[in-house]
Write a structure and sequence with these properties.
The protein has ten helices and eleven strands. The protein has helices spanning about 10-25, 50-60, 85-90, 105-115, 130-145, 160-170, 190-200, 210-215, 235-240, 280-300, and strands spanning about 40-45, 65-70, 95-100, 120-125, 150-155, 180, 205, 220, 260, 335-340, 345. The strands form three sheets. It has a five-stranded parallel β-sheet, covered by helices on one side. Helix 7 links the parallel strand 6 (about 180) and strand 7. The longest helix has 21 residues, at about 280-300. The mean pLDDT is about 95. It binds N-carbamoyl-L-aspartate. N-carbamoyl-L-aspartate binds near residues 132, 163, 262 and 264.
Amino acid sequence: MMNLIDTMDLSLTEIDGLVETALDIIKNPEKYAESCKGKKLATLFFEPSTRTRLSFEAAMYELGGNVLGFSEASSSSTAKGESVSDTVKVVSCYADIIAMRHPKEGAPLVAAKKADVPIINAGDGGHYHPTQTLADLLTIYRRIGTFENLTIGFCGDLKYGRTVHSLVNAMSRYKGIKFVFISPEELRVPRHLREDLDISGISYEEVTSLENAMPELDILYMTRIQRERFSDEDQYQRLKDSYILTVDKLHNAKEDMAILHPLPRVNEISVAVDDDKRACYFEQALNGKYMRMALILKLLGEKDKTEEKIETVSDFVCRNKRCITSCEQEIKHEFRLADKAKNIYRCIYCDKEPKK
Ligand code: NCD
């Protein structure tokens, strides 16, 4: 059985297949209107969402299937102290596929190990958000026509922005990609991602000025400062207005640069930019529905595929408070060898190094 925990679970050929299916859905929606007849999608949202949950639901309805689920932890048995493992074991009895959002990093991987049906990560803490990446990829493809030879600027909260992490992973596998990470020092892209880019020899720079980076960008991916992930409200107040994209700041951008944003927006893109032809964020939300349709079709069609087993060790303890291992009872802490040369291990749930 296949799950989608991060974009790296999909090969480039599989991503091409999803894009192809999504384009066909856009052209011939009636062909797919009964593809999931009699099937049920459960949306288990332990954290707020508008686009992701509703686009999953719309996607399943447009495939002729049905939807059940909850949209906040307080209305589920989590409020009574139920573990993620038990919740998904139970929901597997009622649904054919599960999309899950959870505040703890790695919670969907715990679910995938326990459930008898495919699990889709719809966002796990500040970690990953692979279906947003699918929306981003379709938007890039429809706007620019290729995933290769692009300079991509990520701007804002690159530390906690899970959509950034998943899109960096996805794009780092294409030829001729360069990343420009634009953030305040406190919100730099996580170390594990930088180390992965170093290992793969992918070029990237880290800068603080959006204006200076602008002229070379083919894509500008703006993000919200993720208030809910800050442990220090003063720090949030200090950083919240770090970057605001205005019409003026676009004067030296490429004519055909694509401006993406996973939404919701707070104030990091001024509303006047919406009328600029380079703005793609609302079509990005629509593309998310098509890619989720393609993904549901793929996962339901591949129920019996067994997953590749990765080798893990359990000689350490994960001390990351944001990791699912910090609260879920009795899950084995497991680590994979991330960098052989440097002997670096990382938690399979949250990607952080164990403290020795
Ligand atoms: C993003 C998320 O939930 O990570 N939203 C989304 O799914 N489109 C981005 C965000 O919340 O800032």
